[in-house]
Amino acid sequence: MEILSQHGCFSGRQGFYRHASSTIGLPMRFSVYLPPQAEHGKVPVLIYLAGLTCTEETFMIKAGAQRVAAELGLALVAPDTSPRGANIDGEDKDWDFGTGAGFYIDATREPWAKHYKMESYVACELPQTLAEHFPVDIARMGIFGHSMGGHGALTLAFKYPQRFRSLSAFAPIVAPSRVPWGEKVFAGYLGDDRDEWTRHDACERVTTLAEPYPGEILVDQGLADQFLETQLRPELFEAACTERGQPLTLRRHAGYDHGYYFISTFIEDHLRHHAQQLFAI
Q1: How far apart are CA 265 and CA 58, in angstroms?
Q2: CA angle 263-188-231, nearest 5°?
Q3: d(CA 238, CA 199)
């Protein structure tokens, strides 16, 4: 593992790293904030999945999360949003497909299947890498994210509930099978079999869970979000959770859009939500 940079931050350490990913088959970058409590032992860890076009730096720079993480004793981790440099024709053509748009699924359609394996990377390889190199307790690990990353957080938590023990999202894409962003990406990465798409759709997943996801899910949504009606559709997830009996707190906020001003406003609530569940384990 290569250290790209490290910085003192709220008596803890903010670091940026790169490693050779066996899952992706390419170098992958990620960032880690370690709170001061990590100097004395392993701490719970919270993985954040960023949205379209973002990198491993975006959340750490813009969200303002480190101050509260230092208070609570939570490690924060943000992986990159896709492989980089796969040399696939067209991977840099569109901002919402290819580079920066891995969608946290494992592609099955060529030529994407070789490297675009973000589900396996986030759910399996990244936690093991963290446990090997950092003082974090992956038995107390939560997940959250924004937009595309909110989709990733919801679906990965539903698939791996014993791995991700707490869950929240900002403005998530909850029904990718029914909105343009998801339809484009799923067709490109998975092909035309819509039954396969539903495996990666939070609305579909929550209704088919053997039992509800343990612990309440927190979702925040801005009502001035330019993507609310066309891409996000939180009311669909709300209805699906009600049907399944899944505990959900969905908060709607007037005047807030899709960006990091919104996230930074409510980030403390999310960290405290996760800490309450992770420290209880």
Answers
A1: 16
A2: 35
A3: 18
Query: In the Cβ-directed half-sphere of 99, how many Cα atoms lie within 13 Å?
Result: 11
Q: Are 99 and 92 in contact (CB under 8 A)?
A: yes
Q: Which two tokens stand for residue 191?
A: 């092909």
Rounded Cα distance between 91 and 155, Å, is 24
Question: Can you name the CATH fold of 2-279?
Answer: Rossmann fold (3.40.50)
Name beta bridge partners: 20: 27
Catalytic (active-site) positions: 147, 225, 258
pTM of the model: 0.98
Q: What is the pLDDT of residues 73-90, one digit of tens each?
A: 999 999 999 999 999 999
Q: How far out from the chain centre does Cα 273 lie?
A: 16
Total residue count of the chain as it appears in this document: 281
SS3 3: strand
Question: Domain residue spans in the chain?
Answer: 2-279
- Calculate the average pLDDT of the chain: 97
